[in-house]
Amino acid sequence: MTTFADLGLSEDILKAIQDVGYTTPTPIQEQAIPYVLQGRDLLGCAQTGTGKTAGFVLPMLEVLGSGRARARMPRSLILEPTRELAAQVAENFENYGKYHKLSMALLVGGEMMGDQIRALDSGVDVLIATPGRMMDLFDRGKIMLADIKIFVIDEADRMLDMGFIPDVERIAGMLPPLKQTLFFSATMPPEIRKLADRFLSNPKTVTVSPPSSTATNVTQKLAVMGQNNDWLKRETLRHLLKRDAVKNAFIFCNRKRDVASLHKSLVKHGFNAGALHGDMEQSERTATLDKFRRNEIALLVCSDVAARGLDIDAVSHVFNFDVPFNAEDYVHRIGRTARAGLSGTAYTLVTPDDSKQVAAIEHLIKKTLDRESIEGLGEPREEERHHHRHRSNDKSRDRRHGRDRNSSPPPRSREPSPPISAPRAAPQEAAPRAQPRPRQATSGDAFDDTALPAFLRRPPAIVKAKE
């Protein structure tokens, strides 16, 4: 059996790994670390939860152990699609580099730019950034990229989904030609493969599981409902949470506004739940994740901002309250459970309208998911029935567009519209346009103002006549 010591890592790194509690490298770590230590470009693909982050953090610490950073000239750059992933990679560097003197800076939106600039001014060995904040500081002249030795693009497919590829291409064009480039992702669609061919030079490819596969220790089930009814989905979710005595869980929604409403519903029914989505302030998002990690929150209702890379130990369940629009997002969502060799359970709540999305997921993962019919949960009250019928119509429209539509207009009802009333009949004797409309005198009138221009007349009687 291969150990971390067999991979050529130094004693300081091995000691830090031991402090964290790991003894045996995962397959992606076992295969990727030697190539990174050799200075080779690398294209790494492995299912989520298999330790890809340590697969590049550990050898980077070894390579960067010698040398010294200069002001505003980082020696390595790691791009992440979200602030949460960037913070998690930074945490890995802190844990594994505790016996090194390497400096690190985290450049993400939602944080004070002045603090980040001061960190850059003092010299940075490892720069971890999201593309937006990275480009902002570069355009301000606060970063120079001429000394980059190692360039890492993590969650490359997510970068593509979020529209960051133009920024990534621009950043890559600013880097020196002689550098080591590493690509890591859980899925490898053709677009990312083409992008990798442009950035990587004679790379080694490490694929430790079929692309877009799911972990074998995740029990996957479809909770099938016979109606397209949001109330029934909520009742089904509450039923499963109670029946399985869920310890902690991620609960994914497709739309950010549904995250807020589902969170409110769960709290109303007595569940210990929190919410996480991209429109929240960074400080609030960080505080919510910390509470979930400390088990102060048992259920985290979230959008796909939490679907990638978040490494939280011992999460027992994942619930897809909405079937994801993109089949590959299913792989990332259920990867939040069954991490580090543990087992987990993933439920996906399915209505008749979700048949195409389910078929796409099963085609992607090459597996037929177990169905569990959910019946006998009662009927909603009339006002709930009306409310959730409209919400179902709204979601059907969003499903056709395949994206989050937080700013969509109010949904149209499927019920037939009331007949349009006939236009009002014109008065038999319409006064000529030039003639002022007579107004009735009221108590307190001091004079007749009908001869005055329209903008000078007093409005009360005219308003009443229109009403």
Give an overview in words.
- The chain is an alpha/beta fold.
- The chain folds into 2 domains: 4-207, Rossmann fold, CATH 3.40.50; 218-401, 3-Layer(aba) Sandwich (Rossmann fold).
- The chain has 16 helices and 14 strands.
- β10 (273-276), α12 (282-293) and β11 form a beta-alpha-beta unit.
- The longest helix is centred in the C-terminal third of the chain and has 20 residues, at 382-401.
- It starts with 10 loop residues before the first helix and ends with a helix.
User: How many independent structural domains?
Assistant: 2
Calculate the terminal CA-CA distance, rounded to whole Å: 86 Å
User: Which structural category do the helix and sheet elements fall into?
Assistant: alpha/beta
Shape: globular
**Number of strand segments:** 14
Major β-sheet annotation = 7 strands, parallel
N-to-C SSE series?
HHEHEHEHEHEHHEHEEHEHEHEEHEHEHH
What is the alpha-carbon Rg in Å?
A: 29 Å
Helical segment count: 16
What's the CATH C level of the largest domain? Alpha Beta
CATH architecture of the largest domain: 3-Layer(aba) Sandwich
Strand content: 5-15%
